[in-house]
TrEMBL record:
E.C. designation(s): 3.4.21.107
Lineage: superkingdom: Bacteria
Record-stated family: Belongs to the peptidase S1C family.
Locations listed in the record: Periplasm
Lineage, highest ranks first: Bacteria, Pseudomonadati, Pseudomonadota, Alphaproteobacteria, Rhodobacterales
Descriptive protein name: Probable periplasmic serine endoprotease DegP-like
Length: 503
């Protein structure tokens, strides 16, 4: 009997445990459901925060600072129909007579005519400074600024910068003007919401919205730093602002990528961190004043890095040092610039932008890799705008008068330069090196762009003027365990380094 009582007690205890577990499981499920519901509410709140229900309040706030720009230009040109008959055609005389009759027969077909163009811009100060694109106002005789209120004022050009396609204008208003301020374009992230405003296709003030599609885009300019956006940008939007959600300008709408001239969701705005530096200089000097190092450079590719024994394919390889600050400081062809003014150099584009953003006359430290060793050289920067007439600073080397010899090496047929060959190739009298007289089309040299008429002036970062010197450089590279040899190749005077694999 006692054992049956114990069994009943054990069963009752087990039942209580199961009941308690079921209650606990129900509570746990209820807690999980509650937490899930809370998470959904929070997610909806984040989405609502990221994308406002309406952009109208922001648009109303910033619209008064955006302007339409109309330019007028007097151009020389015909007022009648242009010729469509090829020169020398038997119908040419007939067509000319027809055109002369159409233009009165007195040469009035060449009368000047007035052309107009439309663009956008934005006010950056209450005293009337306006930013737009240089191509909007370039060559204009008269510039009219139309404000959101409908008021129109004439503008004068304070300064322009074709390199970044930025122009600074000024209007004189009787009362302070509404304006916007620049934001930090470096803080813009891919996926952030943006607003583009302007005068697309001459339709008047217009707003479009999108996101930052990409950062740090380059189109064709040396100092390019474009923000790519899918906000609708069309003809007439040029020079207008790209706003972030705080109402700050983070870009100036400049270009679109389109097969048909209309927006396909690929637009480009010059980053505000580039624009602000340009605007400040235009406001102060009426022109830009960029730093100038005075070197020709190319990117360090992996094969170039291997040929030079570098740890990584970073930095900027100097291909030429014409007269200028770098030459005076002692930088040499073949140096690899690793850092500039304390900032590591990733590639040539980064170096060009950093040098351009440096003050003219600044003394900066340039760290280079030379013959496997790192050294730092102090350089006093010049002014980029004064350097356009700089000439090459190549050293003179005695001419080689030996009989020409030809040899096939590295997929190239090579011959030392002589006066006769220089004359045939149109080279300067002081050019020294090896002429490429033929290239094997199945070789790596051909694949990497070497062609007949190129001149090899260095191999392994040492000058070469004979076949034997080049062979010695090849042997030295092999003895050092190098997989490739670095050649300095000149074409029409322009130098570049090419690394060719050693067989």
């Amino acid at each position: 009997m006692q054992s049956q009582a114990n069994v009943r007690q054990q069963r009752a205890g087990q039942a209580q445990v199961r009941a308690r577990q079921m209650r606990d499981g129900t509570v746990f499920k209820a807690m999980m459901l509650a937490m899930l519901a809370l998470a959904l509410v929070m997610a909806q709140s984040v989405v609502a925060f990221a994308k406002p229900e309406s952009l109208a309040p922001l648009a109303e706030k910033i619209s008064p600072s955006v302007v339409n720009i109309t330019t007028s230009t007097v151009v020389e040109g015909r007022t009648g129909p242009r010729g469509i008959v090829p020169e020398g055609s038997p119908f040419e005389d007939f067509f000319r007579e027809f055109q002369d009759r159409n233009n009165g027969g007195d040469g009035e077909g060449q009368r000047p005519r007035r052309s107009s163009a439309l663009g956008s811009g934005f006010v950056i100060s209450e005293d009337g400074f306006v930013v737009t694109n240089n191509h909007v106002i370039e060559g204009a005789d008269e510039i009219t600024i139309e404000f959101f209120s409908g008021e129109e004022l004439k503008a004068e050009v304070i300064g322009t910068d074709p390199n970044t396609d930025i122009a600074l204008l000024k209007v004189e208003a009787e009362t302070p003007l509404p304006f916007v301020k620049f934001g930090d374009s470096n803080a813009a992230r891919v996926g952030d919401w943006v607003i583009a405003m302007g005068n697309p296709l001459g339709q008047g003030f217009s707003v479009s919205a999108g996101i930052v599609s990409a950062r740090n885009r380059a189109l064709s300019g040396t100092y390019d730093d474009y923000i790519q956006t899918d906000a609708a940008i069309n003809r007439g939007n040029s020079g207008g602002p790209l706003f972030n959600m705080d109402g700050d300008v983070i870009g100036v709408n400049t270009a679109i990528l389109s097969p048909n001239g209309g927006s396909i969701g690929i637009g480009f705005s010059m980053a505000s961190n580039v624009v602000t530096r340009v605007v400040d200089q235009l406001k102060e000097f009426g022109e830009t004043r960029r730093g100038w190092l005075g070197v020709r450079i190319q990117d360090v590719t992996q094969d170039v890095a291997d040929a030079m024994g570098l740890a990584s394919a970073t930095g900027a390889l100097i291909t030429d040092v014409p007269d200028g600050p770098a030459k005076e400081a002692g930088l040499l062809t073949g140096d690899v610039i690793l850092s500039f003014d304390g900032v590591e150099v990733a590639d040539t584009r980064a170096l060009v932008r950093q040098v351009g953003n440096s003050p003219v006359g600044a003394n900066v430290r340039v760290t280079v890799m030379r013959e496997g060793k790192s050294q730092t050289i102090k350089v006093a920067l010049g002014r980029r705008e004064d350097a356009n007439g700089a000439t090459s600073g190549d050293e003179d080397t005695p001419d080689q008068q030996s009989e020409p010899e030809t040899k096939d090496l590295l997929g190239l047929t090579l011959s030392p330069l002589t006066d006769a060959i220089r004359g045939e190739m149109g080279l300067d009298a002081d050019m020294m090196g090896l002429a490429v007289t033929a290239v094997d089309e199945g070789s790596e040299a051909f694949e990497k762009g070497l062609r007949t008429g190129d001149v090899i002036t260095e191999a392994g970062q040492q000058k070469v003027t004979s076949i034997s010197e080049l062979e010695a450089r090849v042997d030295a590279a092999k003895d050092a365990g190098r997989k490739s040899l670095l050649l300095l190749v000149r074409r029409a005077g322009d130098p570049r380094f090419v690394a060719l694999t050693l067989g």
